[in-house]
Amino acid sequence: MVQKVMKNIKSKHVLLISDSCYSGTLFGRARAMPTVIDDKYYLNLYNEQSRWGMTSGNKTPVSDSGSRGHSVFAYQLIKKLEKNTRPYISTREIYTDIAPIIANNSDQSPLCNPIKGTGDMGGEFIFVAQGTTTITTPDVIVGSKGKLSIISDPEGADIFVGGKFKGRSPLDMDSIEPGDYRVKARLAGYDAIDKTVRVNSSRKAMVTFYFEKKETKGRLYVTTRPDGSIIKILNIKSGYVQGMELAAGQYTVRVSKTGYAPKTQTVRIAEGEGVDLYVELEKERVVSSEPGPGDTWTDPVTGMEFVWVPGGCFNMGQTQEEKQYLIKEVGKENYGKWYNDEVPRHEVCVDGFWMGKYEVTNGQYRRFKSGHDSKEYEGVNLNSSDQPLVMISWDYAKAFAKWLGREAGQSFVLPTEAQWEYAARGGTTTIRFWGDGPDQACRYANVHDVTSKKQFSNFTWLNHNCNDGFAAAAPVGSFLPNDFGLYDMLGNVWEWCEDVYDENAYSKHGRNNPVVISGGSSRVCRGGGWLGSPGGVRAAYRDGDSADSRLSGLGFRLCLPQVRQ
Questions:
Q1: Which residue of 43, 247, 501, 537 has the smallest Cβ count within 10 Å?
Q2: Inter-residue contact 103 to 132 (CB < 8 Å)
Q3: CB neighbours of 451 closer than 8 A, spacing ≥ 6?
Q4: DSSP 8-state assignment for residue 32
């Protein structure tokens, strides 16, 4: 649809600017920029038809956390145009300046290129500064004939006009009869380029040829054992075919088959080279179907530790005693607003699973997204490598789990809400895994306490009457674990769960391994966090937020049903 609309627009230059994530499949290729950018360069771009697009992101969700009420992308684009002091600036020059800033301040990867199949002829949309009347016109020539100026990037191309060799670029031709001329440029190692140029009386026509290197592809041959394995190249969209042509570069090949442990290997393809890759899979071995309580496993990619949580049944939700305690703390009206989604209390059974011993840290996540910034909260740092990851959406938490699963050959997921509460209780039946009293929290959890109350004057809600020593997020594992050997299940940061948030979820739960996967766009958050009041730091407490939310007190931990070795 985009291509059709742009193709039918009659304007010589069309630029599509889209402040949204976009797959990039409609983008073509742009020629290399010359080393010298002058009025001739802008004039040539202006003379050729253009159909370009600039988008704020690729497939990743775009950030709205810019300045002056704009997204990061929109703010940087407006800022660049407002502060520009040059008479002319091209679309690609703007993109080249703002793209690194956007990438360094968000998880976005902006795109900017011609749109395929729309009639782009090598021109570009030129922004002209206010007060500049037009792009500099060609030299006026006295007499009835015209001139033709031909340049190329790289220089040294053989130039043919009307089929006859005229010299090598850069080339200036005088006394040209007015009319249309077919101009061809040839340069060793590149595809020849043909253009038609019109020479007018008493004017100079200019034409520029941008050469793109001929791409000599390589081939990849993959042999597997056992036969019949599934072969997939992870960083291309097309399916694998034996001996397929691939552009020079590095590729990640994944081989899998039911009953075998998948294997991922990296291979480098050179121009004109055939590469043979042999991959042998090993029979899948599953760590004991019933590991013992407290058994641990370490992910080799990030060093993340996991603890085995044995399966079992428990009463999920709020007790009558808990209800009375909450009403006393916040009153009946607020109880109905805040805590009424924790009932009815019901029995739930979950299968055993591996649970992250700690919340995912900034350092671990940066193996996936090296530029992630958890920022700070009112001057308190949240960005240390051993602090829990925050400013992370549910969508990106899922993307991290998928990436890590591919890298480690495992099946990482977010815990379901039932798994999370079962793990958080640690086999206990009290309001919190250490007991019913909130003011013992500071030995076991990082919560809203006297430290954060003193640090943040705007925290006017009830605090825990103890001192945990941290105003905001603490390094993971700073407090005592629960009986399953899990740290920070309450406090420190809220944690995303797999489930869709539903106020009435408990009336819909089945008994075995319940999970709510439809019915809304918000996702469950659990655990309270470093800013949590006594009523908010309980095993039964539940809340929800939109899947794209990024908050300074919200992170996640991973789990997996079994470990493949």
A1: 247
A2: no
A3: 467, 468, 469, 470, 471
A4: P
Look at residue 68 in the predicted model and tell me its pLDDT. Answer: 64
Dist CA 314 CA 329 (whole Å): 26
For 267, 289, 342, 557, the CA distances from 427, given in Å and listed in that order, are 48, 20, 19, 19
Residue 494 has a pLDDT of 97
Q: What is the DSSP string of 304-333?
A: -EEEEE--EEEEES--HHHHHHHHHHH-HH
- Return phi, psi of residue 442, to 5°: -70, -10
Work out the mean pLDDT of the chain and round it to a whole number. Answer: 88
277 with 268: CB under 8 angstroms? no
Lookup result for tokens 């020079």: 248
Are the CB atoms for 113 and 28 separated by under 8 Å?
Answer: yes
Could you tell me what percent of the chain has a pLDDT over 90?
A: 51
Domains 146-210 and 218-283 agree in fold = yes
pLDDT(534) > 90: yes
Distances from the Cα of 212 to the Cα of 154, 209, 412, 428, angstroms: 9, 10, 43, 67
Question: What are the extents of the domains in the chain?
Answer: 2-128, 146-210, 218-283, 296-560
C-alpha to C-alpha distances, 22 to 400, 499, 514, nearest whole angstrom: 19, 27, 35
pLDDT digits (tens, 9 = 90+) for 51-98: 988 888 765 555 555 566 778 888 888 888 888 877 788 888 888 888
Name the CA radius of gyration of the chain, rounded. Answer: 31
**Mean pLDDT in residue range 447-453:** 93
Maximum Cα–Cα distance across the chain:
101
User: Tokens 């600036």, residue?
Assistant: 89
Reported as type and span, the H/E element at residue 119 is none
Burial of 164 per CB tally in 10 Å (0-12, 13-18, 19+): exposed
Quote the CATH superfamily of domain 146-210: Immunoglobulins (2.60.40.10)
Q: CA 436, CA 282: separation in Å to the nearest integer?
A: 49
The fold for domain 218-283 equals Immunoglobulin-like (2.60.40)
Neighbours of 370 (CB within 10 A): 7
Cβ proximity of 185 and 156 under 8 Å: no
**What's the CA dihedral at 486, 487, 488, 489 to 10 degrees?**
0
User: Is the N-terminal amide bond of 344 cis, ω within 30° of 0?
Assistant: yes
554 contact partners, CB below 8 Å, separation of at least 6 = 390, 392, 493, 494, 495, 496, 525, 529, 545
- The strand pair at 494-500 and 312-316 is best described as unpaired
- Structure-token match 């309450």, residue found: 490
Distance of CA 322 to the CA centre of its chain: 41
Q: Smallest Cα–Cα separation from 369: which of 410, 348, 397?
A: 397
Question: 296-560 maps to which CATH number?
Answer: 3.90.1580.10
The residues near 263 (Cβ < 8 Å, ≥ 6 apart) are: 254, 255, 256, 279, 280, 281, 409
The count of residues in the chain is: 565
